Amino acid sequence: MSEPTASATPTRQRNRTRSRPTVAAPAYLRRQIPTYAFLSPDGLDRLHAQAEQILAEIGVEFRGDDAALDLWRKAGAKVEGMRVRFEPGMVTEIIQKTTPKVFTQHGRDPQHAVEIGGDAIVFSPAYGSPFVYDREQGRRYGSLEDFKNFVKMAWMCPWIHHSGGTVCEPVDVPVNKRHLDMVYAHIKHSAKPFMGSVTAPERAEDSIEMCRILFGADFVDKNCVILGNINTNSPLIFDGVMSQGLRTYARANQAAVVVPFILGGAMGPVTTAGAIAQAHAEAMVGVALTQLERPGAPVIYGNFLSSMSLRSGAPTFGMPEPAMAYLAIGQLARRLGVPLRCGGSLTASKVADSQAAQESADSLWPALLGGANFILHAAGWLEGGLVMGYEKFVLDCDHLGMMHKLMAGLTFDDNTLAMDAFREVEPGKHFLGCAHTMANYTTAFYDADLADNDSFEQWRDAGSNAADVRASKKWKALLASHTDPDIDPAIDEALRDFIERKKQSMADAWY
């Protein structure tokens, strides 16, 4: 961040190379402003009742997971083949009996532990993109090198609290082996908390086992150190890979993030209220299943509900319908008393342009106002999630810094109310050089790292660079200055030995 100056001068552009945040960067963000009550009490009751009716009348299928069906049968649900139906109130009761309202996820550096739930907000990078994009090389398949780059940038960004999970797919590594390289990259190049694999139960087990090597088995059994992002196969299906992965994480006392993935009009009703009720029903069932597997296991109630173009079938983002859905889902999650995950800086744009800025901002805002605790896809998302963008990542990070200042709210004390300044500055005079300004100028305003606030002439003389050009320079500078956080050499050796033995035990599989 640049040093502020009393007036615009040519030195401002040169000072942009000096990186100093204007707001202290915490391990996570604690909300100091209220959430928004979008639904009336009657509307909230009707949505929850609709979800209960869906679960009782239609039910949810569990395909390829007999153990999950047995758990539901023992809990008193009606199981017919793969279909499970639930008496009204049953799933809610299971959730509210043992689900933690707040839990801590530890990083290998204790200073980077994050709280999830309550008034805490955790920002995490985008997840799952098979492609990456930057201005010079364009759109291309992601590689392990790209994966490492995004982990490194997330480590260096003070406004990102979490290393994320599959920040991009490293398609140059076999499918059945890449989870080992991804988890190791999170451990090696960052000390922030991270997510593990969910693409097969054995890969989830490997992810957790690597955490046991890193943290110690006893610590992992008693503490959350890794998250697993579990998607339902909407509408109203948990496939065996996902439900087994969910139970694997819960059984190890690690947190599943249960996320219905619904595009209204495709995987759910075209009407927003109906899609919200479906999302609520699916998420509740997943959260409850973790408690049947291991009562008290940490879990996050998730949501990904967006609109789509009914002309083309393409997903749309930053639209009013998903914004309303996030606000409503926030109230439903608070009613249950569970931590909430929402999406973040979402866009259908292919590059970091004005469409990306509008859609990302209008996706992030309702997640924050709705009370989301864990915001996945907070930085880097392009093209409906198909692409992880280098320039988009750092632009989003700058925006997240602004959200830190906003969510912290106003402070009211003698300094912020500034009576000393009023006493010093005569009516009609300016505050630029007064003692109060000089004492507070470094922290008073968020100084955006990538915004250009210079005069036209200064901007022109510096190269007339648009935001994406400035962002390109920024991410390259970040990577050039990255250093890995220290790790115990014995632990590092044990991790690499585990990975090598695992890889040698299986043939390459590319699908």
From TrEMBL:
The keyword Hydrolase does not apply. Pfam families: MTTB. Its EC number is 2.1.1.-. Gene3D superfamilies: Trimethylamine methyltransferase-like (3.20.20.480). It comes from the Bacteria. Residues 1-12 have a biased composition (Polar residues). It is an enzyme of class 2 (transferase). Residues 1-22 are annotated as: Disordered. Keywords: Methyltransferase, Transferase. One of its GO terms (biological process) is methylation. The keyword S-adenosyl-L-methionine does not apply. GO terms for molecular function: methyltransferase activity. Belongs to the trimethylamine methyltransferase family. This is Methyltransferase. It comes from Dongia rigui. The lineage of its organism: Bacteria, Pseudomonadati, Pseudomonadota, Alphaproteobacteria, Rhodospirillales.
